[in-house]
């Protein structure tokens, strides 16, 4: 998925996902101590068959294969839809808003996890306050500048302070392969919700399932929950 998650343009069935989760559990049992000592190697992945439980490192995925690169100076993001003040943000605009730091894991639905990643950016509630949310808004839709990937959250989920419009990770700028210069990070949910190459945010009147939800994934992707209930602790 475009959030450092499954395969490049290939729908992934639930049996495959459950199998990968089983591999992840096995890998954790065998090499948990070792994983903490392994460098966070950046291992590109093309197809689901190449996805293995990570040894402390990210895996790269995209649903389009090739994604246009933007520098921090060129990047822009539009926030519109059911808002009082539609606005286009550049990196300097985000830097002027309150900055939030999170030290949280990145958990892939296929079983691998990178612990204690440092994320820096604008908490989504602060960005929403900057544009003013219409009373008619019930959800938030995110679009990637890859032209294909989309994601959504309910407005209640989007107002959590552990949901970031992230501009830095691991002490530096977010690289292109990690979804930079700006990406979404949804701490309490599996990585496919953390959309890469963030290019647009739209306030909508209902949740619009994203790219992977249209292919069978849960709309509510709480880590450790399989019942889809929107009752995770805040």
Q: Report the biggest beta sheet as strand number plus sense, adding barrel if it closes.
A: 5 strands, mixed
Mean pLDDT: 80
Helix content: 10-25%
Strand content: 25-35%
Structural class: alpha+beta
Q: Radius of gyration over alpha carbons?
A: 17 Å
CATH topology of the domain at 67-215: Sulfite Oxidase, Chain A, domain 2
Cα shape: globular
The CATH superfamily label of the domain at 67-215 reads Oxidoreductase, molybdopterin-binding domain
- Could you give the distance between the termini? 25 Å
Contiguous runs where pLDDT drops below 50 for at least 5 residues = 6-55, 227-234
The number of helices is 4
| Widest sheet, order of strands | 4-3-12-7-8
User: Which CATH architecture of the domain at 67-215 is right?
Assistant: Alpha-Beta Complex
SSE run: HEEEEHEEHEEHEEEE
CATH C-level of the domain at 67-215: Alpha Beta
């Amino acid at each position: 998925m475009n959030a450092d998650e499954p395969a490049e343009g290939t729908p992934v069935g639930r049996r495959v996902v459950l199998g990968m989760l089983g591999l992840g559990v096995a890998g954790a049992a065998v090499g948990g101590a070792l994983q903490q000592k392994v460098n966070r190697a950046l291992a590109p992945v093309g197809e689901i068959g190449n996805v293995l439980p990570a040894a402390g490192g990210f895996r790269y995925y995209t649903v389009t294969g090739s994604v246009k690169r933007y520098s921090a100076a060129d990047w822009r993001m539009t926030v519109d839809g059911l808002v009082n003040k539609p606005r286009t943000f550049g990196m300097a605009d985000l830097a002027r808003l309150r900055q939030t730091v999170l030290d949280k894991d990145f958990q892939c639905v296929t079983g691998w996890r990178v612990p204690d990643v440092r994320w820096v950016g604008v908490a989504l509630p602060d960005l929403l306050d900057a544009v003013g949310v219409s009373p008619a808004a019930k959800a938030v839709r995110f679009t990637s500048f890859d032209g294909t990937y989309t994601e959504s959250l309910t407005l209640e989920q989007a107002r959590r302070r552990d949901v970031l419009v992230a501009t830095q990770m691991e002490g530096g700028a977010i690289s292109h392969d990690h979804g930079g210069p700006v990406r979404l990070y949804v701490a309490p949910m599996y990585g496919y919700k953390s959309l890469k190459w963030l290019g647009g945010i739209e306030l909508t009147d209902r949740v619009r399932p994203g790219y992977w939800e249209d292919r069978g994934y849960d709309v509510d992707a709480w880590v450790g929950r399989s019942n889809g209930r929107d009752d995770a602790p805040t």
